[in-house]
From TrEMBL:
It comes from the Bacteria. The chain crosses the membrane at residues 21-45. Keywords: Membrane, Transmembrane, Transmembrane helix. It comes from Devosia soli. This is Putative Flp pilus-assembly TadG-like N-terminal domain-containing protein. InterPro entries: Tad_N, vWFA_dom_sf. The keyword Calcium does not apply. Signal peptide: none annotated. Residues 20-63 form the Putative Flp pilus-assembly TadG-like N-terminal domain.
Length: 684
């Protein structure tokens, strides 16, 4: 056998032998199998990397989206910021992540990013696939909300203590700057406030309104002729505390061509300009909600009791109260006579403009007496004044002022310039004489204290300059409402003009803040309440509590017995509330605040209830409410717990009620609220 034959045979045997084939095949396939099995691991790693990139890109889009509203917005600059953000959040140098597209659209509020990521492989690299790649996208769309904020700010007298008003002004100004500018800084030398930075820009679509309040709210003297003001006496409360016929049991609103003078005409007659305050509307049910009343809601003022009545504080009779601003300076008769018959206020409350003019058979017959002492006759004094029953009644005369109405005859009378008869002895006495006198135009005497308060004749004369707490504008807040505006100068000027004086009516401040925010009259600057692109916010700040004044340390019992409390407020007097007496000239069974005889504690409770009702109505209208109660531990007419509960319930949630103890904390409180509202402007 040759070697060639042997070699051939061995080759054929090798080719026929399959005993090592599996090992060979496994060796070849092992690489593929390992790559396929490891592909799952590489895929999971790629998905983890993509998820991490997605989260990072979403965060970058949300964080940088507000920049599209900036005037110097640049897509390339934002992309660079987003790239840095993405790289930091990925936290793995082996993962390649690069933003490849950026699109910003200020019109629809969107910012779009697309990023490409490369994830290195551990297993499929064995078959030549060294990386796995993916693209991720993120789009943040946030509508830029319009923001309407009304700050209701306490201007009461207690705000003058402990630098409260000073700190409130600083805090409110700082909040305004935060809301209306893109960037602020501490004001040099005054850490209680802030100012815009030099590079700050005005923020668009932000408007702020201010409602200062005391016992009243000033709606602005420029609104005297607004359609929502009661200029004709249409409201049932318009003529409260006024009368025209020297008879307190009736009020004659019209007689022939005569009509009762409106409050506006009384202001004109006195020479006083209406400062701008209005009375509260009657507490009359107006809507379906249990909290909706004319004085707690924003019912459109169109007619009757829905209209707003200008404040006109009545002149109080001499001896009954502080706001006695019309006095007769010339004595009519001897004071001894007045004391003898009990008409101690007749001189002071009988100005000549209120005399009854000569008309037909009008006649007053008086009797005077005098006494002789040490050979000399003393000054005469009045002992009797009789009105002739034939004197006319219910007539109109222009003799003393235009269209004056004269009704029932007064109980008695006196003459300013009588025609006298001769002196004659009294019962034959040599030291006592009497004489009679007559006059056609006479002074009405014997009027009740209420009639002396209500008679409108006394306003038909110029009364001279009056202070904050006197005259027909008594206790009217000096600073008027500033409706919603984007004019920051007007906002700051209004805040800086506030003065601390007067009482506290949180209810009236709150309801006017609510009305400023809603779109209907009286103030129409507010956007639609159904427009979801507008966020409406009410911030109510007070240094304590609602206050009223049926208290002996504020006035004497004569005043409280006459009217039910010491001061005329936005609700009038308790005497004017639910007065069903047929002899009353008040508005009848209309609920204002009272009724007569209500204790001061219950008057305050009613004010607290109406504050709560107003807040409930505002929240039901979609308004976000914040409350700030400063120094509630120092309240005197309510308990601290009652006041804090009212303010907490008034706020939209517990976190929106702030209760700082010191006025130096006001900046932090206002600043935190303003910062929250700035963030609120962006809604995902």
């Amino acid at each position: 056998m040759t070697s060639k034959t042997t070699t051939g045979r061995l080759l054929r045997r090798f080719l026929r032998d399959d005993r090592g084939a599996f090992a060979l095949m496994f060796g070849v396939m092992a690489i593929v199998l390992i790559a396929l099995g490891g592909a799952v691991v590489d895929y999971v790693a790629m998905e983890q990397g993509r998820n991490r990139a997605q989260v990072a890109l979403d965060a970058a889009a949300l964080a940088l989206q507000p920049k599209i509203f900036e005037s110097n917005f640049s897509e390339s600059e934002v992309q660079n910021l987003a790239q840095a953000f993405l790289s930091e959040r990925m936290g793995n140098d082996k993962l390649g992540a690069k933003i490849i597209a950026t699109k910003g659209n200020p019109n629809d509020g969107s910012l779009y990013f697309e990023a490409h990521i490369d994830v290195p492989t551990s297993f499929v690299s064995l078959v030549g696939v060294n990386t796995l790649s993916a693209n991720v996208e993120s789009k943040a769309t946030r509508e830029k909300l319009a923001l309407e904020v009304v700050m209701v700010l306490d201007n009461s007298g207690s705000m003058a203590s402990e630098s409260r008003m000073t700190n409130l002004v600083d805090a409110a100004k700082c909040a305004t700057y935060i809301l209306m500018y893109s960037e602020v800084q501490d004001k040099p030398g005054n850490s209680n406030t802030c100012i815009p930075t030099a590079s700050a820009e005005l923020v668009k679509n932000v408007r702020v309104g201010i409602v200062p309040f005391t016992m009243f709210v000033n709606v602005g003297a420029n609104n005297a002729n607004a359609t929502w003001m009661d200029k004709t006496g249409a409201s049932s409360t318009h003529f409260d505390n006024f009368d025209n016929d020297d008879d307190e049991s009736r009020l004659v609103l019209s007689s022939g061509s005569y009509t009762f003078p409106t409050r506006q005409s009384l202001f004109a007659a006195t020479g006083q300009a209406w400062r701008g305050c209005v009375d509260a509307r009657p507490h009359t049910k107006s809507g379906t909600l249990s909290t909706e009343y004319l004085d707690t809601d924003d019912t459109t003022p169109t007619s009757g009791d829905t209209l707003f009545v200008p404040q006109f504080a009545p002149d109080l009779p001499s001896g009954t109260g502080g706001n006695n601003y019309i006095n007769n300076t010339t004595a009519i008769v001897s004071s001894s006579y007045l004391n003898n018959i009990g008409w101690t206020t007749a001189n002071a409350d009988s100005p000549a403009i209120c005399d009854r003019p000569a008309q037909g058979a009008t006649k007053c017959t008086i009797e005077e007496q005098r006494t002789k002492s040490n050979g000399n006759w003393g000054n005469p004094y009045l002992t009797k004044g009789v009105v002739d029953t034939a004197s006319p009644i219910n007539f109109v005369s222009n003799a003393l002022y235009n269209k004056a109405f004269y009704g029932a005859l007064p109980p008695s009378c006196a003459c300013r310039n009588p025609t006298y008869g001769s002196w004659e002895s009294v019962n034959g006495s040599t030291s006592q004489q009497k004489r009679t006198g007559t006059c056609a135009s006479f002074v009405p005497f014997g009027l009740s204290t209420r009639e002396l308060q209500e008679r409108v004749c006394k306003y038909q004369q110029t009364i001279g300059s009056q202070g904050f707490s006197s005259g027909p504008n008594a206790d009217c807040t000096r600073t008027s409402i500033l409706p919603l505006t984007s004019d920051i100068k007007k906002v700051i000027d209004t805040i800086e003009s506030m003065v601390a004086e007067g009482g506290t009516n949180i209810h009236e401040g709150t309801v006017w803040g609510y009305r400023v925010l809603t779109p209907g009259s009286p103030f129409t600057e507010g956007g639609s309440s159904t427009d979801k692109s507008i966020s409406k916010v009410l911030i109510i700040m007070t240094d304590g509590e609602n206050t009223d004044y049926n208290l002996s340390n504020y006035c004497n019992s004569a005043m409280r017995d006459l009217n039910g409390k010491c001061y005329n407020t936005a609700y009038g007097f308790p005497y004017n509330s639910q007065n069903t007496s047929s002899g009353s000239t008040s508005s009848g069974n209309i609920n204002r605040l009272g009724p007569m005889g209500t204790s001061n504690a219950n008057l305050v409770t009613q004010m607290n209830e109406r504050t709560a009702q107003t807040c409930a109505n505002a929240k039901a209208a979609g308004i976000r409410v914040y409350t700030i109660g400063l120094a509630t531990d120092k309240v005197s007419q309510s308990s601290q717990s009652v006041v804090e509960a009212m303010l907490s319930d008034c706020a939209s949630n517990a976190g929106n009620a702030r209760l700082p103890k010191k006025s130096s904390e006001l900046r932090d409180v206002f600043e935190s609220i303003a910062n929250e509202l700035s963030a609120l402007r962006l809604a995902i």
